[in-house]
Amino acid sequence: MSIKPQATKHIKPHLANAEQQEALGFPGQLIDNWQEKVIDLLGEKVNGSRALQVAMDACMKCGACTDKCHYYQGTKDPNNMPVARQDLMRSVYKRHYTFTGKYLPWLVGAKELDADLLQQWYTYFHQCSQCRRCSVYCPVGIDTSEVSMAGRDILAQVGMGQKYANQVIGKVALKGNNLGLPGPALKDTLLGLEEDVLEDTGVAIRFPIDEAGADILLVTPSADFFAEPHVDGLIGYAKVLHQAGVSWTLSSQASEAANFGLFVGSEQHTREMALRIKVAAQDLGVKRLVFGECGHAWRVAQNHLKDLVQGLDFLDARYPIPQHIAEITHELWQQGTIRLDVTKNAQRCITFHDSCNVARASTLGKVKGGQYSIPRDLLKASCARYVEMPSHTTQQTTLCCGGGGGLLTDELMELRIKGAAARMNAFDEVIKQHQVTHMVAMCAICKSQFSTIFPEFGHAFDSVLSLHQVVGDALDLTSSL
Amino acid sequence: MTSAAESVLVVDGIPLQTDEEGYLLNREDWTRNVAITMASNDGVELHDNHWDVIQLLQEYYENYEIAPAIRILTKAVGKKLGKDKANSRYLYELYPQGPAKQACRYAGLPKPTGCV
Predict the structure, then answer these.
(1) Residues A317, A318, A323, A329, Cα dihedral to 10°
(2) CA gap A24, B24 in Å, rounded
(3) Of B1, B4, B10, B115, which is the active-site residue?
(4) Residue B115 bears catalytic tag
(5) How confident is the model at residue B1 (pLDDT cuts 50, 70, 90)?
(6) For domain B7-106, which CATH number applies: 1.10.10.370, 3.60.40.10, 1.10.510.40, 3.40.250.10?
(7) Who among A180, A188, A448 is closest to B115 (CB)?
């Protein structure tokens, strides 16, 4: 299919205003010497990151990535080809930091950074969900997420931050979570859940918060308190931990697993948000740190938490630090500590959407490929009718939901819908062939994105389920173990 | 280079400040006519059940400085309008753009942020 140059040039997130910029220590508006500053920062970024260095130096324009991005597939805008997205930065890097680019710029595609190119940076670095699918196909392993993260951080530092991500980061600092959910509202919500679950199951299951001395601190995306189907996942975690007899607590200090610092490429903000979790774990005196269903939270936690915050050795070393709730549930199920009954999900026929940050940026469990097998094992043990979507859209080559990487904001809806089209085609295929009723996900962003865009593709908004919702529904709460 | 532009909603001849997405910047500017104007701009007519949801959101916000979580809202709707309406499907019928976002906007509350 032919390309459509500039097809999505008009789609960009709202700029952060002066207040939203300054709250995070960034300039309130575009600074006068932006050109010079961008070039300096670019040099620093490339020097400080081997991954970015590879992205700038190693591309041989082989073309393997060109049609692999879900946003390119959905929009046909050539700037959404991963190579072209990288070139927006690479051209400036070459102009200023390579010999040939300085003296023979035309030979290597080197370009001067002008106002138009700066706008393209803002536009197209916010049309990348940092899902890393392109990197799977790149023969030298260039990861475009490194480029868009660095680009966004540079933009914020010269005055062009993104409103949505900045607001969220600001709210975590003020209230402890992305939503700005204050402690009393959180406690009220959790009490309400205890009532609901008692009414639904007849079993008194607790949703403890700020309970010092609990074994586990569970850190989960605040969407789990607020939205559906997320909250059904939270109920699932509580059921599993109740049934296993493990003591656990949430924290009003660390009531957010998500870390938007990653999306905007800011190490400082990523660290500050991660530190809240460490402090909460210390204050509550827990032994274990466990993360709920949030893709990029797990990416940050598993890959970076220990480096970001240092000194987590007060936690019990017999358990992974940190651990994912799906790892715990899987182990409990394998040991026979919890039992799952497929007949409880008899009305459902499910498929699983691998969330990009779990599938490609982290692992689960001790077995190679555990990030693929653990959720599938649990789903197959919970529901008799389980179907895979086509293999080029799952596991390592899964498609992004279309709303990841800090793009889950309404002004990007056109992009989010177009970017989800490839996943929707795969979903349609299994619906047609196997009468699939629901798609299951284990990431707050995937769940919100799908429940928002499903109606655009003729599916009910509530056709997406949480992994731990399906598990929780199948869990045998009556057996005494 | 434009900065995040704010907009204006004119209600009863008075210009009220909103953000780029049409949420009131000052909650105290809210009147019933604000909700009616926003709805009519969306081609929506507000009926009693819409108003009940708006009122529930505002009451909760008054107490907790945030819109209620979906479970709290559906339960409250169920108490007020009947158990058959205590679910998010009903809320999406009333507010197809999503109860949290569309109803919050009509109620003069800020937009919920984050992964929702």
Answers:
(1) -160
(2) 23
(3) B115
(4) yes
(5) very low
(6) 1.10.10.370
(7) A448
